Please model this.
Amino acid sequence: MATTNLLPAWDRWFHMSERGSNLGTEVRGGIVTFVTMAYIVVLNPLIIGTAKDINGNFPGGGQDIGQAISLVAAATALIAGLMTIFMGVYGRFPIAIAAGLGLNGFLAFSLAPQMTWAQAFGLVVVEGVIVLALVLTGFRTAVFHAVPDPLKYSIGVGIGLFIALIGLVDAGIVRGGVPLITFGVYGELAGWPIFTFVAGLLIMIVLVALRVRAAILIGLLATTALAVILESSMKIGAANLDPSAAGLENPTGWQLNIPAVPEQVFGFVNPSPLFSLDPFGAFNAIGALAAGLAVFSLLLSDFFDTIGTVTGLAAEADLMTKDGEVEHLDAILTVDSIAAIAGGAAGTSSNTAYIESASGIGDGARTGIASLVTGVLFLLAMFIAPLTKMVPYEAAAPALVIVGFLMMTQVAKINFSDFSIAIPAFLTIILMPFTYSITNGIGAGLVSYVMIKVAQRKSKDVPGLLWIIAAAFIIYFTVHPLKVIFGL
Model:
């Protein structure tokens, strides 16, 4: 104890010596985490910044998709930087925070088309406030302990498959059609944009397999460079994706923005046009019941995504206590909840803990100092936000597929010989990508788990909180018949 007291105050606060680390290792780990997940500064704008609200506006209230992408990129880097620094100082854990994949898709593709962006972001803030209240009352921590570990892992696996599917759809590899889905363009991998995706995926696969640090970022940059070269030499152009058109005039064109070096490469983009909120406007726009269900969906997804992520990272970093608890769990969950509020307020979608933090942990990071380094690098990334305009979906989508793989590796921790847990885990995993919903997968897994335990006459094995959560999900799944019964 006397030796510990001789350590600098900052060392004692971050537990650096206690956890067997040093300043150099923490700085390096923070850099590795940043370069591993820096792709979010590119990907989040391609999801949030390219979607229109009910009035046909992009985030920020304008009609210029390029401007919207730059705004969202700058805001994504700003909030990721601030919240990751907050995690480092208060949570004292090597976890980075950024806009949540899956949650941003729900916001862009499900909520925004039904309301204004201010109302959609307002729902995210409402959800974040509720989650924060659940943390402060101890409820979120209690649920963390109530959910069986195999189901926590299955949530991560399901989200991984969901993210990978989004990547395949964005790249045009998987498309809607007859039959239900089609492969590529008319059943073939046709066109230079799809070639770009395949090349990028192969590059990332090799780099990840060779354990190259920053494999995703290197692959993304290389694929973007390839896309720019192809467009400048081939003049490929954009695909005509207008559903009102008689046909695709250019089916093998780029799915989104055409890759080209922007006139302005460096420079600060002020994201303040995104800071517009209407917290309760959605309740008038789509009705109290529909808005409440939207908040419930965001709440459940954010709630359980963090549970799975924190558990996995703590186990990998060997920072679990002898009782199987995560050190500073309450502080970590508090930061994560505030990050959800900040993400909604800044127009970037709910921010949450990132599983890619495992890269820094794998490189030796064990304290919040690594998060401080990652956060500062995110803030510096705000000055290259204009570069995001040159990245097409086909160059960014391989990163989603690889992240999906990394998240799916948690499946090895699930005992599939025990059907009482294997079936709920299976439903959790498959329903997320197949229904395009994280919430549906989580709900099906928890409800089926409780039902199986009841059938096995092992109801006593189900924690009290799981009964409440299962009941909430049953209501969620039966909303339509309930609306019919009560004439809503």
Remarks:
- Residues 241-246 have pLDDT under 50 and may be disordered.
- The beta strands are 97-99, 174-176, 181-183, 351-353.
